[in-house]
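Data availability (excerpt). The following record was deposited with the supplementary files.
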Amino acid sequence: MYTSEQILAKLRPVMDPELGLSIVDLGLIYAAEHRENGTVVLRMSLTTPTCPLGPALRQQVIEALASDPEVTSVEVEWTFDPPWTVQMAAPEARRALGLGG
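Predicted structure:
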């Protein structure tokens, strides 16, 4: 089984299609769990609740994890509690967005 840190490492290459930054570095992944049955459960958000790219982002997340033989399925739970803010992003992501560190 993978730790949440290992799951985040597998998701780091997944980019937010609008911002071009990692969803992990943006802080969009609120929780990640690899269960004993092989299912990975993610609780994640989008930069805005009305983001039209949610389905595409979900598919990218599933593809990034499902190719691993230790992952039997991927469940993505959307949440906007708390709503995402730029303060949730890693300092390097904030700098890339021109918002300081």
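Summary of structural features: The radius of gyration is 13 Å.
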